[in-house]
Amino acid sequence: MARTTSIETMPPHATGKARLSGPDPVAPEDDFRFHALLYPNRSLSRDGFFRVLAVVIGVNLVNGFIYLTLGAWPVAFFCGIDILIVWWAFRLSYAQGRRHERVMLTDEALWVSRVLPSGHETRWKLSPYWVRLWIDRPVKHESQLKLTEGGKTLIIGSFLSPKERGELADALSAALSKTRTP
């Protein structure tokens, strides 16, 4: 199968600011045949982040003080910049961790909702009877999970590991099959 170069070719059903709480207007929770909330993996907790940052600050303060006493004050300045760069990189990583996707299947529709770190939400509504699910087998790092309908493609779970993408494809495929059979 040819690799899709664009991220999305399917126009969204709706866009707007994501609601962070309250019931979803799509369907009551009991009506879902399939429901998955997908988040990117973050291996370092907030507590771990503060510990790593404390070690980086401590090491840079000691090194900066040593170089400052030796008369190499520019090195101390760069140690401070090093602390800011590490803090900024972690902040950016945690911001990307707020990105998530929600896949909801009812008898009438397959809804895909994508929320960006900024809180902007985009929703797609697909027919469970016409949508096709595609994934390269065996699932590799560069494999994509695609939902196609009417010549348009939607890629979901791009931030998941290959194993998680394969499990999502299997579960969603099984749920779509059950929905299509009377």
TrEMBL record:
Keywords: Membrane, Transmembrane, Transmembrane helix. It comes from the Bacteria. This is DUF2244 domain-containing protein. Residues 1-23 are annotated as: Disordered. The keyword Signal does not apply. The chain crosses the membrane at residues 48-66, 72-90. InterPro entries: DUF2244_TM, UCP032162_TM. It comes from Parvularcula mediterranea. It holds the Pfam family DUF2244. The keyword tRNA-binding does not apply.
